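Reviewers of the previous submission asked for a worked example of the structure-prediction workflow described in the proposal, so we include one complete record here. The input consisted solely of the amino acid sequence. No template or homolog information was supplied to the procedure at any stage.
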Amino acid sequence: MARSRPIILEGLLMQEGRHLILQMADGGQWRLLALGRQAHLLGRHVRVEGVREDHDIVAVDKITAR
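From that input alone, the workflow returned the following structure tokens.
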């Protein structure tokens, strides 16, 4: 399994409980580990740049609205 690899994803930023989730167009989901506030981006289509940490987890470096 690929670990600690750079990754760029685009999808819909959602929140499940206290966790940020990136919902992909194909129905897949990524859990995001992000610092700071992203409330203004919830429900919007975003681009996420970061490092893949596990099967479905991304340590986020940057989130930008698309």
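The mean pLDDT is 93. We consider this example representative of the routine output the project will generate in years two and three.
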